[in-house]
Amino acid sequence: MMLSKGLKRKREEEEEEPEKEALAVDTWWLDPRLPAVAQAPPAVPSNSLLDLSVLKLHHSLRQSEPDLRHLVLLVNTLRRIQASVEPEATLPSVPSPPEAPGVAADSLLASSDAALSASMASLLEDLSHIEGLSQAPQPLVDEGPPGRPSGGAPPGLGALDLLGPATGCLLDDELEGLFEDIDTSMYDSELWAPASEGLKPGPEDGPGKEEGLELDEAQLDYLLDVLVGTQALERPPGPGR
Amino acid sequence: MELKKTRADIISTVEFNHTGELLATGDKGGRVVIFQREQESKNQVHRRGEYNVYSTFQSHEPEFDYLKSLEIEEKINKIRWLPQQNAAYFLLSTNDKTVKLWKVSERDKRPEGYNLKDEEGRLRDPATITTLRVPVLRPMDLMVEATPRRVFANAHTYHINSISVNSDYETYMSADDLRINLWNFEITNQSFNIVDIKPANMEELTEVITAAEFHPHHCNTFVYSSSKGTIRLCDMRASALCDRHTKFFEEPEDPSNRSFFSEIISSISDVKFSHSGRYIMTRDYLTVKVWDLNMENRPIETYQVHDYLRSKLCSLYENDCIFDKFECVWNGSDSVIMTGSYNNFFRMFDRNTKRDVTLEASRENSKPRAILKPRKVCVGGKRRKDEISVDSLDFSKKILHTAWHPSENIIAVAATNNLYIFQDKVN
Q: Which BP terms in the Gene Ontology apply to this protein (chain A) (predicted)?
């Protein structure tokens, strides 16, 4: 029976904020050449919104007992953002074998987004195990982040990637050290057999080669199918439910 | 309006009792503070009864769930009063996991003249007792004691967000993110699950319960709201498990207002029946809506609380303010509704005249007994002298919890750790 060490619940930071919290005007999407008044938020989110959302989800998952409402709203918003980035889902071919190490950074991001669904799903599955069981898996803490692409997204972003060791989405050595103090021994249990997930990062397609944070088309397709349910996740049956 | 104020820790709930004589607050530290209204004195007719501290007690303590390695927060999420049936007062208070029934009673007499004990309470040697006397009750200084009468525990896996006393006064419900349980006040070791929206596969979870309340008169009817902006009305007579609603209230999304944050801002943070029982009021991030129970497809009234925030949603998402949960309240006659906002502002909407007002609960701007001045937020262009611009609003000062006296124009407003009580000025 594995229990991770108790994590002190983090107080909601916005309530503790002693100094005044002023609101910045939304400008991240503004083109400085055009008058601000004339511009409306774009239909397609910038990568920073996606990054921010993933970061928030990550933060939420790190709470010892996540606020379920907050989590669900975040996840639904993330799905909406991802659906916007790739509105047309096509059925992917059979997912390719895992990437070899050293593959382009954007595929790591892509796999982290594909893993996002699995991570979120896993967490929600976790919460179902909370009921009446002596073994309560903690919410996902950092398994270890994949290498970050040169796009400069925060290192915490990729930390949701469960697939690291098993499928070759590998840990960036320098980032791994950030998470040394986290007890991940419980993730070695069979509950978490990520290799059986069937969620493997997709192949390198043309779009995947782009720099920055572009999502790989095939991986998005796969992700969307997972979300839509045409692709079943292969999971080991959990106890209790 | 006159202003009075009292200090407390960060207040997490405020509730008048059914007569308005008592006002209870719960705070993050698990304490409950009850204020009582002074009896109005004949000598000072113009001085309305003030609220003074009546009782303070520790309702919930922080707990550690060793099984799950989790801390259970002692913060009081909700307080609900029971109607008064004898000299004592009863209230329910709840944290994330456990509901408690508290009895608050006065003691102003004590027995004196025991036979077996002396005046200090020490036992007397029976051999020294030669006469018997009858103990008598003698007056003492008023003491208000709070005792926990029932503890309703171990019934909620997820965080309790609401409790509601049934009009039968025998049962009440407690709601968490995924389930609603029905309790009998006399029975603490079991409860009936009446709503369960937990999916078989948690990966499919997309919606949670955000608030629930019993109908004020029909003991079989209750409503619950969701994070997707919907309200379901259920009838307990229909089946034991009310997973199928009797009515489903949802407003179609306005396509012109659609954004990535549409769902978050549509999440309902509070639902309240009107006193008449004919309407429900819901609060989402930007609006308050009034619904007629007979019309499910849209609300009959929508009030903009702070629409100037609509263009700031991304920043509010970034600083998490977009997840703030504001409550809303009816006045006694259901003609005015009130809710909080940021910068210690709170808003009132008159349903009949359609007028609205923004007021501020702050010590800097008001002195005791001062008249509250309406505030205005300037959204762009030239800012007038008394207006405050949107970008100057303080988002750490949020009014999430307010209460309205059941019959008079007295309101209680919780601003972080300060409690403000406002009354109508008597001319």
A: negative regulation of cell growth; positive regulation of transcription by RNA polymerase II
